[in-house]
Design goal:
The chain is an alpha+beta fold. Helix content is 46%, strand content 15%. The longest helix has 18 residues. Keywords: DNA-binding, Transcription, Transcription regulation.
Length: 270
């Protein structure tokens, strides 16, 4: 009998599971272990399997959308279906429910667009959106990756995550910054100064998503911290009509307050 009092229809052979699925998960984990697209050889080494065997699994996963292959480099990365599964799993976390409620309240009270973000393999990733009547940022979609060094969200994460988690994105961002004008820090020293300020004031501001300073757009972001003081998520408010960094209008204070409350709940659950 099963625990629920119903007879189990699984025989000992079935209870052992399907070995091919176990092997396939190992291949997926190998892909996920890289913070960039990986070659077949790299995946074969990490998975501990012959390249020919790994390739067969990758081919099947590409058909399902779990894996995507760059047509030029031939390297492999997680595909759109993997992202969808990840977002579905994230949606089941308590921190997401808590933060989403706060986002809805902030958007309703101030009529300001709000984003909930996590740190993904590629950097700050949007997992929830509450839109305002402004609707001037309709191009932002679930799964979008924001510029780590040129967005309020990215700076909030960088200020509250260990360097080993963010080094690849920082190095890439600084390299890109040298080719752009007026888009934030261009050296590690400049970035360090900005991140120290973010930690001190409790919030960050950033540049437009296109990578150029936009005086008509205002963004402010505050992290939700876990028991180790690291950012579990970041809530970002965006507006083209309201200066969100003006401490006199109370919006920044409210965002800091709700994120602190959510952080305390998160810590108590760990």
């Amino acid at each position: 009998m099963s625990r629920r009092g119903k007879p189990s229809h699984l025989n000992p052979e079935e209870k052992r599971g399907i070995q091919s699925i176990d092997v396939g998960i190992g291949v997926l984990n190998a892909v996920a272990s890289f913070l960039r697209p990986a070659s077949l050889k790299e995946l074969s080494d990490v998975a501990g399997m012959p390249a020919s065997k790994v390739h067969r699994y990758l081919t099947s996963f590409i058909r399902t959308g779990l894996i995507a292959q760059d047509p030029i480099s031939g390297r492999y990365d997680l595909g759109p279906q993997a992202l969808q599964l990840g977002l579905s799993a994230i949606a089941r976390l308590d921190i997401v429910d808590i933060a989403t409620r706060h986002m809805a309240e902030l958007t309703a009270e101030y009529d300001i667009m709000s984003l909930l973000n996590i740190w993904g393999d590629q950097g700050p990733t949007v997992i929830r959106i509450k839109r305002s009547t402004e609707n001037i940022f309709s191009s932002i979609a679930l799964g979008a990756v924001l510029p780590p060094l040129r967005s309020a969200t990215g700076l909030a994460f960088l200020a509250h995550l260990p360097e080993e988690m963010t080094k690849i994105q920082i190095d890439k961002g600084l390299k890109e910054a040298k080719k752009l004008e007026n888009t934030g820090p261009k050296t590690k020293r400049e970035l360090a100064d900005i991140l120290n300020k973010v930690r001190t004031q409790g919030y960050s501001t950033g540049f437009s998503l296109s990578g150029t300073a936009n005086p008509s757009m205002s963004a402010i972001a505050v992290p939700l911290l876990d028991i180790q003081g690291e950012a579990s998520a970041v809530i970002c408010l965006m507006s083209g009509l309201t200066d969100l960094t003006d401490m006199n209008n109370g919006i920044a204070h409210k965002l800091i307050e709700v994120c602190k409350e959510a952080s305390l709940v998160t810590k108590s659950n760990e």
